[in-house]
Design brief:
With 212 residues, the protein is an alpha+beta fold. Helices cover 31% and strands 12% of the residues. It folds into 2 domains: 3-42, no CATH class; 61-211, HIT-like (HIT family, subunit A). It has a 5-stranded antiparallel beta sheet. The active site is at 164 (tele-amp-histidine intermediate).
Length: 212
């Protein structure tokens, strides 16, 4: 038996169960076979009771009558934080942004799934996404973007019944100790000012094509 094997045997015991109080020269290893409670006994727990309301769906829209994505287009642009309106989709700032300039491209129709969109809606959703990227780059100098949509509650969609695509600008170093450790996002600009800057620049970048 090697010295390493002997140290492991001493640390966990002949029966494969982890011991407590092993010395510093004995490596601590958690066996995953022939051990009924070993791995579970060393896991730490992070309690997040505030997420239970989200898991249960409390406060979620139950239809187009209380869906924020259906109600927002009926508001004025400033009140609803709408950046641009298209024929079948619109662009609106996220009320709880990951980064400054985080917006969403949303169809007017109350549909849940990407496969529910018409050909026209798919085309315009893509067009407004491109315009959003060009506009945000011009206004804020974004280094990159996260673009995507969560389909269904199981995939993390906050409002699963109404499709929405996120456009999140990114900068080098925008993920630091504040959100990771402090659970705080630093947003240097109020949403109304961000909306005004993007809305004012939107038309200039709407049809510039691939050359932009």
């Amino acid at each position: 038996m090697s010295q390493q094997d002997e140290q492991y045997r001493v640390a966990v015991g002949n029966d494969g169960r982890a011991s407590v109080g092993e010395t510093s020269d004995q490596p601590y290893r958690v066996p995953v076979s022939n051990d009924e409670n070993g791995p579970a006994s060393v896991f730490e727990h992070l309690w997040t009771p505030y997420r239970m309301a989200y898991i249960r769906g409390e406060g979620k829209p139950t239809g187009d009558h209380d869906c924020p994505f259906c109600l927002i287009p009926k508001m004025g642009d400033e009140e609803g934080l709408i950046v641009a309106r298209g024929r079948t989709v619109f662009a609106v700032l996220n009320l709880y942004p990951y980064n400054a300039g985080h917006l969403m491209v949303v169809p007017y129709r109350h549909v849940p799934d990407y496969t529910d969109l018409t050909v026209e809606e798919v085309a315009e959703l893509g067009d407004l996404t491109q315009t959003a990227m060009r506009t945000i780059r011009a206004v804020s100098g974004a280094h990159g973007f996260n673009i995507g949509m969560n389909q269904g509650h199981i995939a993390g969609a906050g409002i699963a019944d109404h499709l929405h695509q996120h456009v999140v600008p990114r900068w080098g170093g925008d993920t630091n100790f504040m959100p990771v450790i402090g659970l705080t996002r630093v947003l240097p600009q109020v949403l109304t000012e961000t909306r005004r800057l993007l809305a004012d620049a939107w038309a200039e970048h709407a049809d510039t094509g691939a050359e932009a």
